[in-house]
UniProtKB/TrEMBL annotation:
Organism whose genome encodes this protein: Azonexus hydrophilus
Family, similarity comment: Belongs to the ferrochelatase family.
Pathways per UniProt: Porphyrin-containing compound metabolism; protoheme biosynthesis; protoheme from protoporphyrin-IX: step 1/1
Job of this protein: Catalyzes the ferrous insertion into protoporphyrin IX.
CDD domains named among the record's database cross-references: Ferrochelatase_C, Ferrochelatase_N
Keywords: Cytoplasm, Heme biosynthesis, Iron, Lyase, Metal-binding, Porphyrin biosynthesis
Locations listed in the record: Cytoplasm
Identification of the protein by name: Ferrochelatase
Main localization, broad class: cytoplasm
Pfam family, one: Ferrochelatase
Catalysis performed (reactions): Fe-coproporphyrin III + 2 H(+) = coproporphyrin III + Fe(2+); heme b + 2 H(+) = protoporphyrin IX + Fe(2+)
Length: 367
């Protein structure tokens, strides 16, 4: 087997192309047990996702999990599946289209596309296509606001594996995180305030729950910054909203297995609040750039049922940023910062011309 993939035919005189790739976690191809089995096998076989000795984990995964979990997960996916497909896939594709339009309006000549770390379209398939189309500079944006070895790092791993098999490598850049980006936080703040406009503000007896995807506590002990970055996002959002420490809480959802995970846990918190007389809870999940199973089923459905069954009266899930215009503009700003130094502007850019004129005027005034 050859070490390197065949190179596409070289075309002399073509300008170097620039591309931006949005990468999200992934999704099964359909809400069925066979599709979930394929997806979960790829996802849970990643050593960054599950840090258990490989022989032991292989037996657990193939002997138990892949025989029991696909059917249960498929039933959950069926409750959120749309006519267009998986919500995560639909939103990620739309975000890429909107980002391409925005960067085009700002004068950038770039290709903008998307990939899934697990499932299709895969990162290697997308990179192969971009390279064949002449992309020599590629910016990869993992769509995880907070860095974790089990999310952001796996995207870098997959791209690096692709580079190892590529003879004529393109220049590549990676976004690490954007957990404290001002534009991202502003978009979150506006989404909450729009929700409060429609449903009324929180009273002193109501709560905002800021829920993030959970990780094993061991990841924090080993040096993963995820826990700290989640808390920074939550704290900065609460400050923007003017909330007191009693009005909000940062929690972690999606616990799996018997090991201790990052705490406090979301589901027990909702149950406790319902039993303690908390009347209303609004929930937002800032760790998800697009709605998916974990937000639409686990939080919007299961979380509501837990809170109301425990005695709560009113429960609201605030949707992920998805195609929110403020978020797309923030994403455009993030992309532009990481494209800096690469020639992506069109030949005539009125904005750049205006900026150059201002700078020339300032220089003239100084001299």
């Amino acid at each position: 087997m050859p070490r390197f993939q065949p190179e596409p035919p070289h075309r002399h005189g073509n300008p170097a192309g620039t591309a931006v790739v949005l990468v999200n976690l992934g999704t099964p191809e359909a809400p069925t047990a066979p599709a979930l089995r394929r997806y979960l096998k790829q996802f849970l076989s990643d050593p960054r996702v599950v840090e258990i000795p490989r022989p032991v984990w292989w037996l657990i995964l193939n002997g138990i999990i892949l025989n029991l979990r696909p059917k249960k997960s498929a039933a959950k996916y069926a409750t959120v599946w749309t006519d267009e497909g998986s919500p995560l896939r639909v939103h990620t594709e739309r975000q890429a289209k909107l980002l391409k339009g925005l960067l085009g309006e700002r004068g950038h000549q770039v290709t903008v596309t998307w990939a899934m770390r697990y499932g299709q379209p895969s990162v290697p398939a997308v990179l192969n296509h971009l390279k064949a189309e002449g992309a020599r500079r590629i910016l990869i944006i993992p769509m995880y606001p907070q860095y974790a070895a089990s999310t952001t790092a796996t995207v870098v791993d997959e791209a690096a594996r692709w580079l190892l098999g590529t003879r004529n490598q393109p220049e590549m850049r990676f976004l690490r995180n954007y957990h404290d980006d001002a534009g991202y936080l502003a978009a979150l703040e506006k989404s909450v305030r729009r929700h409060w406009q429609a449903n009324g503000p929180l009273s002193d007896q109501d709560r905002l729950l800021i829920s993030f995807h959970g990780l094993p506590k061991r990841s924090l002990d080993l040096g993963d910054p995820y826990f700290c970055e989640c808390h920074k996002t939550g704290r900065l959002l609460a400050e923007r909203l003017g909330l007191t420490e009693q009005q909000y809480k940062i929690c972690f959802q999606s616990r799996f297995g018997k090991a201790e995970w990052l705490q406090p846990y979301t589901a027990p918190t909702l149950h406790a609040w319902g039993g303690a007389g908390i009347r209303r809870v609004d929930v937002i999940c800032p760790g998800f750039s697009a709605d998916c199973l974990e937000t639409l089923e686990e939080i919007a459905q299961e979380g509501r049922d837990d809170f109301l069954a425990a005695g709560g009266k009113e429960y609201h899930y605030i949707p992920a940023l998805n195609e929110d215009p403020d978020w797309i503009h923030a994403l455009g700003d993030i992309a532009e910062r990481h494209l800096a130094g690469w020639e992506t502007k069109t030949a005539f850019d009125p904005h750049a011309l205006e900026t150059s004129a201002r700078e020339a005027f300032k220089f003239g005034a100084r001299t």
